[in-house]
Write a structure and sequence with these properties.
The protein is of the alpha/beta class. The chain has one domain: Vaccinia Virus protein VP39 (Rossmann fold), CATH 3.40.50.150. The protein has eight helices and ten strands. Helix 3 crosses helix 4 (about 90-95) and helix 7 (about 170-175) packs parallel to helix 8 (about 195-200). The chain is globular and about 50 Å long. Bound molecules: S-adenosylmethionine. S-adenosylmethionine binds near residues 85, 88, 111, 133 and 152.
Length: about 240
């Protein structure tokens, strides 16, 4: 274990799903790579999944979810910001809509290379910014984005099932008034109280926080999702 052991507090544990009972009850940590090494780690793609550092980063059973998130993020057209390219499943769906521009931020260099190949062939202008969103987001103007889709991957223990929380204040800043924010929610049925609190602390009005449920069918051996639904956030600035 390379990283310092993190103590699992009440808020952190409240976001860990039911099926992670063993993890919830243990003091063990599971992320044992250095965040910076993610950039140069080898990305192994198959037709059905993407693995980095032995972690299942993306699997194609998520396709119906990516389709719904793409529909939500592109619902206003205009400029779409996507964080995390992965297998490019959501990116492909986004390009089916009448958008003006697609900005992709991706941290892993193998994956960013795929994103640049995708950008060359894309129907709508597509720009790839390579690096962690935490470093690249300053290159996106405030109040300039019509839709944001955030789907990265936890690169630190404290981000497990809640890596979107740190991004919420940036989502609020970067969206135009009326812009739409959606993301891989890690919620099965509804937003938890902590989740709603974080959204409101970032600036979103409770009246503008909505969602739909997407049905999914993960294989039994899927490491990160064991439910038949995932919440698709529809959040307006
Ligand atoms: C779950 S995949 C994205 C899946 C994508 N929506 C799709 O449909 O295929 C997550 C991606 O986020 C990237 N990533 C992880 N942490 C990141 C960060 N902090 N900034 C930017 N990209 C990140 C990973 O390298 C990976 O390519």
């Amino acid at each position: 274990m390379k990283n310092k052991i993190m103590k699992k507090d009440k808020d952190f544990l409240s976001q860990i799903p039911e099926w992670e009972k063993e993890y919830k009850n243990s003091e063990d940590n599971v992320i044992d790579f250095e965040k910076n090494d993610w950039k140069t780690a080898k990305a192994s793609f198959s037709d059905h999944d993407l693995f980095i550092f032995g972690c299942a980063v993306m699997e194609d059973w998520e396709t119906p979810y990516m389709k719904d998130l793409a529909e939500i993020v592109a619902s206003r057209g205009g400029t779409v910001l996507e964080l995390g390219f992965g297998m490019g499943i959501s990116a492909k769906f986004i390009q089916n809509y009448d958008i003006k521009k697609h900005i992709i931020i991706e941290a892993n260099s193998d994956v960013a290379k795929k994103a640049r190949e995708f950008a060359k062939m894309a129907k709508h202008e597509t720009v790839v910014l390579e690096g962690f969103w935490e470093d690249m987001i300053k290159d996106v103007h405030n109040n300039s984005i019509d839709g944001i889709l955030f789907d990265t991957y936890p690169l630190a223990e404290k981000e497990l099932y809640q890596n979107h929380f740190n991004f919420f204040p940036f989502a609020f800043k970067k969206l135009k008034p009326g812009g739409i924010f959606t993301y891989y929610s890690d919620e099965v049925i509804k937003f938890s109280d902590l989740h709603l609190k974080k959204l409101q602390e970032a600036g979103f009005n409770i009246k503008n926080i909505d969602s739909k449920l997407t049905k999914v069918n993960p294989p039994l051996d899927c490491e990160y999702w064991k439910a038949s639904t995932i919440l698709s956030p529809i959040i307006r600035k």
